[in-house]
Each structure stands twice: as C-alpha cells, then as structure tokens.
Amino acid sequence: MWLEDSPDAFIHCFDLNGTEIWKYGAGQDLGSDLDHMPAMKKIKLDSKGNIYVAASRACGYIGEKYKYLGIVYSFDSEGNLRWKFPESELMDSGVTWIDNTPDGKYAVFGTTCFTNADKWKEGTVHVLDGNTGKEYWNYSIPPLEPFFDYSAIWYSTQITPDGNNIITMTSDGRAFLFDNSRIMETSVPEVKWQENISTPVVVSGVPIYGSANYAYIINNTLIFSIGSTFSKDKNNDAPIEHPNGNSLFAYDTDGNLLWKWRVDGYAGECAMNDRYLVVPIAQNLVTKDRSAHGVYVFDVSKSGGSNSKLVQVYNTKGITIAADISPNGKYIAAMEAPARLDDGTVLGEYKVHVLT
After folding, report:
1. Has residue 271 got a pLDDT over 80?
2. CATH number of domain containing 162
3. Domain carrying residue 82
4. What is the torsion angle, in degrees rounded to the nearest 10, for the CA atoms of residue 301, residue 307, residue 312 and residue 318?
5. For 64, phi and psi rounded to 5 degrees?
6. Could you give the C-alpha distances from 224 to 110, 134, 167, 293, 305, in angstroms and in order?
7. Which SUPFAM superfamilies did the record assign (predicted)?
8. 17 or 288: whose pLDDT is higher?
9. Are 168 and 216 in contact (CB under 8 A)?
C-alpha cells in the first residue's frame, strides 16, 4: 500500500506484481489547494485484512487561528469503505496516527492542532468500535499551562493487542495510560497514570521542552520516544538540550520505569516486531552531533537496562530517516538521505541499506 500527500491524497493498494487493485482519495473529503494539500498520514491493518487510515489537512491560518481538518477511514481488503469517522462531517483538528487491535475490535487515535479547535477538541483520545466506527469514548487532555494553551497529540496513540490499555503523549512532554477495559466497564474515561517526561523546564530564563513524538508497545513494554528540544520563547532558541530530550523511555503498564536510553540524535519513526525495536537516527538539532547517524536495534526481550538491550548499531554518513524489520527479525531495511551542512558540505547520499 502507498499513501499520498497530494491534492488527491490517495491510498493505493497494489498486488505483489505491482498492479494497482484499488485506490481512494481523501482529497474529496478534506479539500485541497496548492499551498495546503491533504495527506493520508498513517495506515494499520488487522488480522482480517481490514484497513484503518488517518487522514489530515493543515489549512494554514484562517483569521487568527491555524486550522486543521481530520477524518478516519476503514476499508476492507478489496477497498470497500466500511466506515468513516466522523460519519457526516470533518473534525476541525488534525489526525496523524491511528492504531487498532489485531482482532479489529478497537480503533484508536488522537487529535492535534496548534490552537484551540472550535468543536473537535485538540489533544483528545478517541476510542472507536473497529467494526462500525461508532465511538465508545473520548478524553480531552487539558493544556499544560502556563506554557501551552493547547494540547497536541501527534504520533503516539497506541492500544495493547488485548485492548486493555491505551497510551498516548502530548507534544509538551507528557505521557498517559488509560485502562480501556475499566473505562468500558464503568463508562467513565479517566487517566490511570501520567508521567511528565520532557515537560518544560526554565533554563537561563528560557522555557525549553523535549517534543514528545512517538509511542510503541512491544509485548508489555511501553516505549515513549522524545525528540528534539524546542524553546517556548519565540525570541530565544533553546540554550541547551532538555535533560530528557532525544531519549527513549520504557515503562510497564503500572507506570514503573524499566529503562531509558539517550539517543544523541533525532529518532524517527521506529520499526518493531514482537521482540526488536529498530530506531533510525538523524542528527541532533541542538548539538549538531552527526556521529549518531544510523540504525540502532534493541532486543526488548533481554533483561537489564538499555545497554544490554542494544544489540546492533549500523552507522550511516547521511541521516537515517526510516527503517523497517521483517516479521521474523532476520532483515532490516533502512533509508539514508544526504545532510547538507552550513558550509555546503554534503554528508551521505540517498541509499537503501539492507541489514541481516
């Protein structure tokens, strides 16, 4: 399958010979113009071949507000639309990530925006019936004042395969776990636990935070990936890295910290199977450290801390922007891209690396 960021924002489905079987465009729902195109952002499949897709469009400033539009789709394996959420309107928040249980019982996503949405509140976790698209419950995470007046969830809302727990992160550095099984019983959405991993700290008068990017679930290990350090002072850059920026944090479902790892570079979207976590690393945006570029492989099943779990490192000259791993863990594919320095020097090249 292939997802587009284009005026049509198609999802394409191909057979193994490369013949297109079907396609569907989110542009017909989200609209488009040359400056603000829609995109199919994330795709997931269940064990029956049903497909779940998050689609979004950044519309730019309309008046004083930066506006997003979002919608979620589900298709069967032949491309027939099973449902969309919302059914008859668009959310005025963006949707950049979606997850589901393998049996298709639940589909979950979070919303994002850079301002307060008018109707579909940003920073909200939504839990749907994966078969019908009906919403079971939602929970809006309040902004982290005084530093933020909005909450944004980007690439982090995940559900455990058994459907019992849901995790998410807001971009301000907070991680959350919801006990979905209890919420389904009580009909009372609430946070089971919260960790302030990379929330703002003030350094030399400048508030800095580590952007909370991705979250992953491998068996019963919950992994939160913190990205680059940013300043909340529009007149000053971050003077140093946030203490927990560019790091991985692993917890159990009770909120106990199992291990953590300082990345030294920027971790993109990781790949995983039921044992390994594969981390593509680009340069550190604050320190400009380029020695960390490459692929880092963790065996989450091993005992001990992050050093014992780190089982393979493969460095690249350019930045490593993506990686994937085969289901049996035998092969890893990674994409390298060139990095152009301020003096015009180019490090690396566009290249696909296949590791065993």
Report:
1. yes
2. 2.130.10.10
3. 2-196
4. 130
5. -100, 0
6. 15, 28, 9, 20, 15
7. Quinoprotein alcohol dehydrogenase-like (SSF50998)
8. 17
9. no
